[in-house]
């Protein structure tokens, strides 16, 4: 696929940008990243995972103290509650392991398809379309989709992205969204894929480029 091929020239090894050492740590980090940024999350997780070195520690954490520990990422009350409940459930139902399918993952409190797909892609190696804010923005701008519904976008992208490239495509969207196709001031003139981008074509037409 042209877009993937061109972006791989810029970002040859796109990977998940959340930092973690254990599978459940990625789950917690992804929950924390909702309505926040990976950069912000990566600033607090080293201390957080040192303070709570196991699922048992998260399950038994004082809720108010956990809220304070993650307060900087926003929506911290709901996230703290979700993390505690998930930790307890993983211990009691899954023997401390993560479910290995998206259906069970999305039954966990605070886990939607985006978070579940992050786990499927990075922990279980299953190619997955991860619709975060970057993927949503770029997919709409390029013209792959015309929707603000993450689930609809995921299934639309599945139709046009080669299955073995699902995860790579998703990671490329993050890299390019941060570096070039930014939310407020996209650097369209320097974009390596502007020749196939609907947003740039409209911009060029309106400005008589």
From TrEMBL:
EC numbers for this chain: 4.2.99.18
MF-aspect GO terms: endonuclease activity
Cofactor note: Binds 1 [4Fe-4S] cluster.
Keyword Iron-sulfur: yes
SUPFAM superfamilies reported for this sequence: DNA-glycosylase (SSF48150)
Keywords on record: 4Fe-4S, DNA damage, DNA repair, DNA-binding, Endonuclease, Glycosidase, Hydrolase, Iron, Iron-sulfur, Lyase, Metal-binding, Nuclease
Keyword Lipoprotein: no
Protein origin, superkingdom: Bacteria
Domain HhH-GPD: 32-179
Amino acids binding [4Fe-4S] cluster: 181, 188, 191, 197
Cofactor(s) demanded: [4Fe-4S] cluster
InterPro entries: DNA_glycosylase, Endonuclease3_FeS-loop_motif, HhH-GPD_domain, HhH_base_excis_C, HhH_motif, Nth
Enzyme class: lyase
Reaction(s) catalysed by this chain's protein: 2'-deoxyribonucleotide-(2'-deoxyribose 5'-phosphate)-2'-deoxyribonucleotide-DNA = a 3'-end 2'-deoxyribonucleotide-(2,3-dehydro-2,3-deoxyribose 5'-phosphate)-DNA + a 5'-end 5'-phospho-2'-deoxyribonucleoside-DNA + H(+)
Job of this protein: DNA repair enzyme that has both DNA N-glycosylase activity and AP-lyase activity. The DNA N-glycosylase activity releases various damaged pyrimidines from DNA by cleaving the N-glycosidic bond, leaving an AP (apurinic/apyrimidinic) site. The AP-lyase activity cleaves the phosphodiester bond 3' to the AP site by a beta-elimination, leaving a 3'-terminal unsaturated sugar and a product with a terminal 5'-phosphate.
Family: Belongs to the Nth/MutY family.
NCBIfam families given in the database record: nth (TIGR01083)
Protein name: Endonuclease III
Gene label: nth
């Amino acid at each position: 696929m042209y877009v993937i091929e061109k972006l791989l020239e810029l970002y040859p090894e796109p990977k998940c940008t959340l930092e973690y050492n254990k599978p459940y740590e990625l789950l917690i980090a992804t929950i924390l990243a909702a309505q926040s940024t990976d950069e912000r999350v990566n600033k607090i997780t080293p201390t957080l995972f040192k303070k709570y070195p196991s699922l048992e520690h998260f399950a038994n954490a004082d809720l108010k103290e956990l809220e304070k520990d993650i307060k900087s990422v926003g929506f911290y009350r709901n996230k703290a509650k979700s993390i505690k409940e998930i930790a307890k459930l993983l211990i009691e139902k899954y023997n401390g392991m993560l479910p290995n399918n998206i259906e069970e993952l999305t039954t966990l409190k605070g886990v939607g398809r985006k978070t579940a797909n992050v786990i499927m892609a990075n922990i279980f190696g299953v190619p997955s379309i991860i619709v975060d804010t970057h993927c949503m923005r770029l997919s709409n701008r390029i013209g792959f989709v015309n929707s603000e519904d993450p689930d609809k976008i995921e299934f639309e992208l599945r139709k046009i992205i080669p299955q073995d490239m699902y995860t790579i495509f998703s990671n490329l969207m993050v890299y390019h969204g941060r570096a070039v196709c930014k939310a407020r001031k996209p650097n369209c003139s320097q974009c390596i894929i502007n020749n196939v981008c609907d947003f740039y074509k409209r911009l060029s037409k309106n400005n008589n480029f």
